[in-house]
């Protein structure tokens, strides 16, 4: 038949776990795309509260970008088998992740102080959207922190020392993903939405 | 590492794969729990999906029998109904609340639990590793979790039937404000909370499953199994998984907003609402239409999530039993792809009468009618595959042909409904009910039956009884047309759906006899399905034993495994693939399995 010349060598394929992560990231993107599209649709209707983002979201953006850098350095350290350095860097990354989550909630309370109510009776959909989208993103970051803690525990396992880079790379890819996702959301809330 | 890592070339497959390396050699001790309950074997998980789906199909089907009793015999009373439904059928008469709860649960259960989990869950799990030549899924653990999330969703949904205020009763689409306000109706109270929890668990199950299916198909194919050598079943299941992975998250985001509106006082979907017992609500600025957009962005691809597996299996079964290569393999793949792309661009045709901008409406009409093109290509290819074939009318083949018949008759009415102008008249009438039940519901059920009859020998190493199967086929096919054909007339006459009683409505009283006829057929067809169930479970234990590896003379890889394959599927090395899956009747040979190397004297290859 005509498919003779399309046979691939079946070699050098992407690792199934990495591939699965990429599809999962596509899936997560669809969720946020759904929410931000809903945001745009809703904004063009009546009764939409306009408000500026508190400055603290700039700090959280800086924190998550720095955490991406430390994550990148951690993977490098892991591949160079500098395990002590690797452990320090992923701890730092996880810490920055938690700091990011904390800063987001400080941002929420800053909004609250300015009289912008996120949830509950009397809240405007525009603020509720911000709360839900940002909140969901924080949950995804916290999921990344859990993954980092698991990698951390693995790095201390004495009996079966593993130098396979794939699990670390999977976590790193996810971490950069939530970072980029936040940058998208930050740009969206500040300038697009 | 086991030999499959070498075979696949994906070195360092990881721990989950390592853990299963020994299964292929058949000396791994399995307990009852690891083999039948928390199994990570894709074949067992497929069977778990199938049997759970069957339980739901019976429950969901029984619900339709109950509400058809109300529609067919609105004035009669059935004391036994009070025995089984209690306060929901006082005096043997189904109450209005119970009627709406039954309709809603029937829809939710059939669409999601039977035709999504039961159909694609079963056959994706069972067929993907077997037909692409893999020992198991990319992640057997995630696969197991996907079933158990589905199981938890089932338990929660089932429990909602037993709460005091009853299950959710606002329609399977769960439109707000009815679904968002507990005060709006009894069904919107605890029943709706449970509905949302069940659906959220279900979405998680589908995402875990879909990720796995895609990763397995793209990464775990055996040597020589290029994408263009895949059986069409696998292509269909692949596109099904892509649809699910991209559309279920959007439904999920819609549900999140709904949960916040229900429980945390937000106003995404709510505005200017007055409830008789409560008074005016403080919610302002929401838009109920927003939910419809988010819902139908899943809702329409969901139709294809249900239909594509049936299409794929019908292609495979028709080609095998017509002893002819599938006509237009690449056109079949291309049309599946076109359906997937268009499936994402037509959701608003469910919303023509919501006050949608007519200009937008016309774009959605165009997109919707465009789907007729790939659909017609598929129908043409099925018919040309059958044309002058050496047809063997096995039960699987009959159901596959029945699928094509139903897809044609149901698809044609889709062209009517896709027109926004005609939809003004037909929207929310029985015409819609007839259309989607035939094209999506019954057709996909037929695909599922075809798959079960065709792959039962591979699943259980025995055959199902053919006499019962033929009876099942003919009565179901005739019954399906007798049930849904008359509904087209009712719908054209304008008879709206979702009504409890048409008795004091002059225009539609005339259909009482017709409704009674439909309801009677429903009862008969439901009983015929019990025949199938009996056949299925009886044959698992007592069916005629399969004695040859390849009972249907089929080309695909699953028939190169032992009659009862263990975990790991092939006892030795995974076979290498040398050709596509459809070399039937080539060079005078009845069939040439995919594992046969290409000979020197073969005609074009």
TrEMBL record, chain B:
Protein name: Cytochrome c oxidase subunit I
Keyword tags: Electron transport, Heme, Iron, Membrane, Metal-binding, Respiratory chain, Transmembrane, Transmembrane helix, Transport
TM region positions: 49-71, 109-132, 144-163, 194-220, 232-260, 294-314, 326-347, 359-384, 396-418, 430-456, 468-487, 517-538
Species name: Deminuibacter soli
Signal peptide: none
One cellular-component annotation, GO: membrane
UniProt family annotation: Belongs to the heme-copper respiratory oxidase family.
Molecular function via GO: cytochrome-c oxidase activity; heme binding
Alphabetical list of InterPro entries matching this protein: Cyt_c_oxase-like_su1_sf, Cyt_C_Oxase_1, Cyt_c_Oxase_su1_BS
GO process annotations (BP): aerobic respiration; electron transport coupled proton transport; respiratory electron transport chain
């Amino acid at each position: 038949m005509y498919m003779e010349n399309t046979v691939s060598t079946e070699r050098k394929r992407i690792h199934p776990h990495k591939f699965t992560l990429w599809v999962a990231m596509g899936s997560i993107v669809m969720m946020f795309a759904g929410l931000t599209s809903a945001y745009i649709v809703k904004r063009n209707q009546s009764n939409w509260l306009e408000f500026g983002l508190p400055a603290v979201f700039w700090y959280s953006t800086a924190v998550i970008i720095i955490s991406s850098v430390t994550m990148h350095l951690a993977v490098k350290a892991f591949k160079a088998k500098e395990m002590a350095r690797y452990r320090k860097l992923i701890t730092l990354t996880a810490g920055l992740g938690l700091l990011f989550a904390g800063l987001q909630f400080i941002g929420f309370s800053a909004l609250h102080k300015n009289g912008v109510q996120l949830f509950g009776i009397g809240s405007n959909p525009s603020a509720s959207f911000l709360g839900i989208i940002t909140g969901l993103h924080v949950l995804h970051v916290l999921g990344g922190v859990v993954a980092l803690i698991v990698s951390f525990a693995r790095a201390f396992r004495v009996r079966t020392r593993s130098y396979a880079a794939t699990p670390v790379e999977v976590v790193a890819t996810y971490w950069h993903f939530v970072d980029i996702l936040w940058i998208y959301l930050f740009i969206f809330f500040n300038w697009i939405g | 590492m086991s030999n499959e890592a070498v075979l696949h070339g994906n070195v360092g497959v990881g721990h989950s794969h390592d853990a299963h390396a020994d299964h292929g050699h058949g000396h791994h001790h399995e307990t009852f729990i690891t083999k039948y309950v928390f199994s990570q074997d894709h074949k067992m998980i497929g069977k778990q999906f199938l049997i759970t789906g069957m339980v739901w199909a019976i429950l969901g089907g029984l619900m339709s029998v109950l509400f058809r009793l109300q529609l067919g015999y609105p004035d009669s009373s059935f004391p036994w109904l009070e025995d089984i439904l209690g306060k929901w059928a006082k005096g043997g008469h189904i109450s209005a609340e119970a009627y709406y709860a039954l309709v809603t649960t029937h829809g939710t259960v059939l669409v999601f639990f039977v035709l999504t989990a039961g159909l694609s869950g079963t056959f994706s799990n069972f067929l993907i590793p077997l037909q692409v030549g893999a020992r198991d899924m990319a992640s057997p653990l995630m696969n197991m979790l996907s079933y158990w999330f589905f199981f938890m969703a089932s338990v929660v949904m089932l429990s909602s039937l037993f709460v005091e205020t009853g299950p959710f009763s606002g329609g399977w689409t769960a439109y707000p404000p009815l679904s968002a306000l507990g005060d709006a109706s009894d069904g919107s109270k605890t029943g709706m909370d449970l509905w949302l929890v069940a659906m959220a668990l279900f979405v998680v199950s589908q995402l875990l499953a879909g990720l796995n299916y895609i990763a397995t198909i793209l990464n775990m194919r055996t040597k020589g199994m290029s994408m263009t050598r895949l059986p069409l079943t696998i292509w269909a299941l692949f596109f099904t998984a892509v649809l699910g992975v991209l559309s279920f998250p959007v439904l999920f985001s819609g549900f999140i907003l709904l949960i916040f509106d229900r429980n945390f006082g937000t106003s995404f979907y709510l505005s200017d609402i007055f409830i008789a017992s409560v008074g005016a609500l403080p919610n302002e600025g929401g838009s109920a239409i927003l939910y419809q957009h988010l819902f139908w962005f899943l809702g329409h691809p969901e139709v294809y999530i249900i239909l594509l597996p049936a299409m794929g299996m019908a292609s495979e079964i028709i080609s095998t039993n017509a002893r002819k290569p599938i006509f237009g393999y690449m056109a079949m793949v291309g049309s599946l792809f076109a359906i997937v792309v268009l499936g994402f661009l037509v959701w608003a045709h469910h919303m023509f009468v919501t006050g949608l901008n007519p200009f937008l409406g016309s774009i959605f009409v165009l997109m919707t009618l465009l789907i007729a093109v790939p659909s017609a290509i598929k129908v043409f290819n099925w018919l040309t595959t059958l044309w002058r074939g050496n047809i063997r009318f096995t039960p699987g083949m009959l159901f596959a042909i029945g699928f094509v018949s139903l897809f044609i008759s149901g698809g044609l009415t889709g062209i009517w409904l896709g027109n926004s102008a005609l939809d003004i008249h037909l929207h929310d009438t029985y015409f819609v009910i007839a259309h989607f039940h035939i094209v999506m519901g019954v057709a996909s059920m037929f695909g599922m039956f075809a798959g079960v009859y065709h792959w039962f020998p591979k699943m259980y190493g025995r055959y199902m009884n053919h006499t019962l199967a033929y009876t099942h086929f003919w009565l179901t096919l005739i019954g399906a047309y007798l049930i849904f054909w008359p509904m087209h007339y009712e719908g054209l006459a304008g008879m709206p759906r979702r009504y409890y009683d048409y008795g004091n409505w002059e225009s539609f009283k005339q259909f009482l006899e017709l409704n009674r006829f439909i309801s009677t057929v429903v009862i008969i067809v439901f009983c015929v399905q019990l025949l199938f169930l009996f056949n299925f479970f009886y044959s698992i234990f007592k069916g005629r034993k399969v004695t040859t590896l390849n009972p249907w003379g089929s080309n695909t890889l699953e028939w190169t495994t032992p009659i009862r394959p263990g975990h790991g599927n092939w006892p030795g090395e995974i076979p290498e693939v040398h050709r596509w899956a459809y070399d039937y009747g080539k060079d005078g040979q009845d069939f040439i399995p995919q594992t046969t190397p290409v000979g020197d004297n073969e005609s074009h290859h």
